């Protein structure tokens, strides 16, 4: 069974530029999560989807971050414009249903200069 | 909000020895889940073990076991017969069973485990 796929694996941009990350969850998983992991810290939830609906986006900085999961399968997370403090690893996770075990992708490491 | 504390930023163990990683958490809920995740340098977060709060029996997975003390809100991970491949960051995580919480994982800051030959 294929795991959670993410791309790109690495991205370097300058501040005020835009960037987008892509995530394809495990087939059949209805719930998808985006986490932000700043160096030296544990991951922090940004947004959670159930199929194509948002369950929780209370920690998402909505002035610059946006995410969508239009067809209830893969998802895109966008940052526009990026700030230096957005440098982090962005992890995508999925679970079969809400409350089930979450499986993580390899992450996208973002460096904002 | 629930907080998860890992008080050991770094731990070291010799190959074949046993090591225990500590985790405490703060919650007012009676039912919840606790997890230990491993994150090697490749950065893929891998589930090591999971404990359901309503189960008194400590979870075990091969060389990995937990000591779950619900009253003390403590959830430590014991790794027996440590192997070089166990070297990684280990994260303790809490998950509510309350639908209002959205079931997101609440992570500690992690413990870096070094395994020496």
**pLDDT averaged over residues of chain B:** 93
Largest sheet of chain A: 7 strands, mixed
What proportion strand of chain A?
over 45%
Rough outline of chain B: globular
Total DSSP E strands of chain B? 12
Rounded to an integer in angstroms, the radius of gyration calculated over CA atoms of chain A is: 13 Å
Shape of chain A: globular
* Largest interface, chains and sizes: A-B, 25 and 22 residues
Oligomer class: heterodimer
Main sheet of chain B, how many strands, which sense, barrel? 6 strands, mixed
Mean pLDDT of chain A: 94
Helices and strands of chain A: which structural class? mainly beta
Residue ranges of chain B: pLDDT <50 for 5 or more in a row?
none
Would you summarize the structure shown here?
Chain A is mostly beta strands and 113 residues long. Helix content of chain A is 0%, strand content 49%.
Task: Kindly describe this structure.
The complex is a heterodimer of chains A (113) and B (117). With 113 residues, chain A is an all-beta fold. Chain A has no helices and eleven strands. Chain A has strands at residues 5-7, 10-13, 19-24, 31-37, 44-50, 53-56, 65-68, 75-79, 88-95, 103-104, 108-112. In chain A, the strands form two sheets. In chain A, strands 2, 4, 5, 6, 9, 10 and 11 form a seven-stranded mixed beta sheet that branches. Chain A has a four-stranded antiparallel beta sheet with strand order 1-3-8-7, with no helix packed on it. Chain B starts with a strand and ends with a strand. Chain B has no helices and twelve strands. In chain B, strands 2, 5, 6, 10, 11 and 12 form a six-stranded mixed beta sheet that branches. Chain B has a four-stranded antiparallel beta sheet with strand order 3-9-8-7, with no helix packed on it. Chain B has a two-stranded antiparallel ribbon with strand order 1-4. In chain B, strand 5 (32-39) and strand 6 form a beta hairpin. By secondary structure, chain B is mainly beta. At the A-B interface, strand 4, strand 5, strand 9 and strand 10 of A face strand 6 and strand 10 of B.
